[in-house]
Design a protein that fits this description.
The chain is α+β, with helices and mostly antiparallel strands. It contains nine helices and seven strands, in the order αββαααβββαββαααα. It has a five-stranded antiparallel β-sheet with strand order 2-1-5-4-3, sandwiched between helices. Strands 6-7 form a two-stranded antiparallel sheet. The longest helix has 23 residues.
Amino acid sequence: AFERRRLRDRALRNEARLQAFLDNTPSPTFIKDTEGRYLHVNPRFLQAFGIDAAAVIGRTDAEVFGPEQAATFTGNDRRVLETGAPITFEERARYVDGPHVSLVTKFPLRDMHGKVYALGGIATDITGREAAERQFRMTFEQATVGITHTSLDDRYLLANRRFCEMLGYSREEILGMTTRDIAHPDDKDQDLQQRE
């Protein structure tokens, strides 16, 4: 009886620790059964979507979200359950404050025998990063000067429209070249000396 109580107390402590972790994670997290019904969502999930637990627990995406959003979530869940492996998806969702883009890592949860009994997920909001990337791309492309990004071995990774126009190459041609390929012959030796 003592051993049983000790094991039960240990299980309760572990469960409380896991619950505290999930409840205090700043990212939306969820657990769904293999039929897609929500078993758990954390407070950040509820806050993001502006709903309460009673509107989610025991329900499917189709019952909680609009058809388009539910179809995306459900399709991605299905892929994880079919492969039995974690997969990260870029998902768009309508939060209470508007549309958001998140990287959502979904993973199978297995019982002691290795059988998948549920699916877990953690969403990382990248809405701000996506907006910054859009702004960068717009600035990069609309610059009146030639701009490039190169790798450590001097291979062109990015080239804006103006750079291509200045050199008379297409973007595809530039991205197959190195800086040495287009350098003036007199500058090649000087460039190599500066790098050494």
